[in-house]
Write a structure and sequence with these properties.
Elements lengths: L2 H4 L14 E11 L2 E11 L6 E11 L10 E6 L7 E10 L1
Length: about 100
């Protein structure tokens, strides 16, 4: 096979994956340019099927330091920025 047959056509790009987004509440903003966002999800218990609340904490990069504790925010997945940080603040939904 020739290289032209295996290479993508000029002008076409490979499609990147869609970035994950989460909506949660800021629980800490004490670090420089970093916020901790708590995301709640409601899932049925594996055995008893009762709906239970499960929370996850995400460290997100906040370049302008605009989010404060208690704000509802949207975060977007990004490349790893540090050991724990791989999310970016997309927008503040509610102050």
């Amino acid at each position: 096979m020739s290289e032209a047959a295996t290479a993508p056509a000029p002008g076409t790009e490979t499609k990147q994956g869609v970035r994950k987004t989460r909506v949660g509440v800021v629980v800490s903003d004490k670090m420089n340019k970093t916020i901790v966002v708590e995301v709640e999800r409601r899932v049925p218990h594996p055995k008893y099927k009762k709906i239970v609340r499960m929370t996850s904490k995400f460290y997100a990069h906040d370049e302008k330091e605009e989010a404060k504790v208690g704000d509802k925010v949207r975060i977007v997945e990004t490349r790893p920025l540090s050991k724990l940080k791989c999310w970016n603040l997309a927008e503040v939904l509610k102050h």
